[in-house]
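Retro notes, item 3 of 5
We never archived the inputs for the pyridoxal-5'-phosphate complex last cycle. Fixing that now. Sequence and ligand:
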Amino acid sequence: MTRVPFTDLAPMASEVWASIEQDYLASLLGGRYIGGLAVAAFERDWAAYCGADFAVGVANGTDALELTLMALGIGPGDEVIVPANTFIATAAAVVRAGAVPRFADVSDDTLLITPQTLTEAITPRTRAVMVVHLFGQVPDMTALLAVADEAGIALIEDAAQAHGAEWDGRRAGSFGEAACFSFYPGKNMGAFGDAGAVVTSRPDLADRVRVLANHGRSRGTAHYEHDCLGTNSRLDTLQAIALSGKLARIDAWTQRRIAVADRYRAQLGGTGVKLTGVAPSARHVYHLFVVRVADRGGVREELGRRGIETGVHYPLPCHLQPPLRRFANRSLPVAERAAGELLSLPIFPHQTDGQVDLVCEALATALRGRGGIRP
Ligand SMILES: Cc1ncc(COP(=O)(O)O)c(C=O)c1O
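Structure as it came back at the time:
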């Protein structure tokens, strides 16, 4: 039986290794592991790729979110709006910063926050909204920025799943006060371990994040007078070298993800799945290819029997997660219903057309006799 893994990171490492081997080994054997020129070069190049002025490398995407909130002075007494359908880190960062997450429902078509659901969640205590480019798609930033401006709240991008995604020709990372990226290995551009970045065009914010991420030091790593209390969330030199190598390939890998998604879309129409919508102004980079099905448990089981790995992003919306329920103040019907139907199909740059076709055939067979999802 041909197996189709959910993702496969090894071919990306192999593809990139020749171009980074020298720098990687020089750093490894030279004894230089944190910060340095390789980190500065990656930060410069990543900011430019995103269309922003600064990037600050940090330890992971979760820290990027928390440090951004701290740098903006958001904390106790403040509310931050978060879409209900996201990875828990988006909401957890708000709680860890001392603020209160308020949850917004999502579009039934794209599963992203909308100007209307954002507006519904705003209260006099709202200081910011975390706009999540979930699955790799940027929502309508023109309209969301207009709502945020009108309400006088900061817009922060959670771009952990959206390397190179665009709205109206503008890249993820260039819209908000700041944008938070994860380079977790499974992300579209992943490090060889945990890593993240805060991207912004505000020099004061970039400086503040850098100080907070380095124990409150404002003059590099090696002094012991601290300007404020921060944390340890720095980017490792070896990770920066790996990421610079991958940055040179991210556009080709994204093209392949888009081609895989197009092939899925062409074959899955009429099989009873509900496809996730893509706005005409969006360049979706398909971190995940998410469909909705009836009897998800049964469908997953059957796909598993045929050697096809799938995922669920996410089985519970954030406001129903046990540690976050105390912040839920209303029901969010679209996110709640979708959570029972979401199914993520394998997608990765080195996936073959044959593997895509196997998934489509297996899914069509699994859905036969199960009935389609309501439109
Ligand atoms: C939407 C979203 N936000 C935040 C994160 C947190 O990133 P990290 O795992 O690098 O801490 C992730 C990924 O894990 C994510 O998918």
